[in-house]
Write a structure and sequence with these properties.
Layout lengths: L1 H17 L11 H13 L2 E5 L4 E5 L3 E10 L13 E10 L8 E4 L14 H7 L2 E5 L14 E4 L2 E5 L13 E6 L4 E2 L8 H6 L2 E7 L2 E3 L6 H4 L9 E8 L2 E7 L14 H10 L4 E5 L7 E3 L2 E2 L14 E7 L3
Antiparallel strand pairs: 1-2, 2-3, 3-4, 4-14, 5-18, 6-16, 6-18, 7-8, 9-10, 9-11, 12-15, 13-14, 13-15, 16-17
């Protein structure tokens, strides 16, 4: 009996020693990490509270928080118009090392680069399962070389040398988004499309003006005589992989009282959010922000915004 008991104890010990344990090299390898990431994505946190003006999405590689605020900034100059408007601020954090980066989604998903097929931002976001999607520079409205540089998902679509009339918008400054999570901007004549792609640019949109550089508002923006109020859209970076996208409503006095915003005020708001860099994208009836396919902001004349061939998106997640 003693011998049998000893043999049984030895067998149990051998099984315990040979059994795989949590944290083995095999489990912590690529397959293990993929399973962990998949589990974290399946357990994503989602919050939608339109009444309070807060939307949140968070998983293992992406965090997006959107807040709606009412902004009533003080006048910068005595003769400036009074500003009072709804502001939608999206703070986006991406794990760029895991490949979480902004992408361009095309209205025709079967034919990227097709500018003839156009849909609303909400339609594109819904059909392609984007957590967050916004309008861009609407380059097709300008057409030809007047659209400036157009790079989408690393592909050069146009290398136009857009001309800018001083004091008028758009300035054709670029918004360049790179594979390492950086964002930057250059004047239209300073850099060619091939230079952008050689430096790792995945997306280059062209609109402007630059609102912030190295955390400071450019002098030309401070001293401009353009003090008009408009619905405006800005994209900025706090640090690589950490972005702010903002849409300020306007021309809605009879709807919700939103007056629109001056470009300098928009720059100050982006600065307050911690951006070191920011640039304006197309505003007006073009500017639309969506969360999980639902449009958040109100557009002046076109309820769903202008139809477009593309959107700038974060977080493509199958439902």
């Amino acid at each position: 009996m003693k011998r049998k008991g000893l043999l049984l104890l030895t067998a149990v010990l051998l099984l315990w020693i040979c059994a795989p344990t949590a944290g083995t090299a095999e489990e912590s390898g690529p397959e293990g990490r993929m399973n962990e990431q998949k589990a974290s994505e399946e357990a994503a946190t989602v919050l939608e509270d339109p009444e309070e003006g807060r939307w949140l999405y968070e998983d293992g590689t992406l965090r997006i928080e959107i807040r709606r605020t009412r902004e009533t900034p003080e006048k910068i100059r005595e003769k400036d118009y009074r500003q009072d408007f709804n502001c939608y601020t999206a703070e986006i954090l991406c794990d760029t090392a895991a490949g979480e980066l902004p992408v361009t989604l095309w209205a025709d998903s079967a034919e990227p680069g097709n500018t003839r097929i156009r849909k609303t931002v909400s339609q594109i976001a819904t059909e392609q399962h984007a957590v967050f999607a916004v309008s861009t520079d609407l380059f097709t409205a300008r057409g030809g070389k007047e659209a400036g540089i157009v790079i989408r998902n690393g592909e050069i679509l146009q290398d136009g040398k857009a001309k800018h009339a001083p004091g008028r918008r758009p300035t054709f400054d670029t918004l360049a988004l790179y594979a390492d999570g950086r964002a930057d901007s250059f004047p239209p004549a300073e850099k060619r499309a091939e230079e952008y792609t050689a430096e790792g640019a995945l997306q280059v949109y062209t609109f402007g003006p630059v609102l912030l550089r190295d955390g400071e508002i450019p002098e030309e923006l401070i001293h401009t005589d353009d003090r008009n109020l408009n619905p405006m859209h800005a994209f900025g970076m706090i640090e690589p992989g950490h972005y702010i996208d903002m849409i300020c409503e306007g021309r809605l006095k009879d709807v919700n009282g939103s007056t629109g915003v001056m470009a300098e005020t928009l720059a100050r708001l982006m600065q307050e959010r911690g951006c070191t860099f920011a640039v304006a994208l197309d505003g007006g009836d073009t500017a639309v922000m969506t969360f999980r396919g639902k449009q958040l902001n109100t557009v002046p004349k076109l309820p769903a915004g202008r139809v477009t061939c593309e959107v700038l998106a974060f977080g493509i997640r199958e439902e």
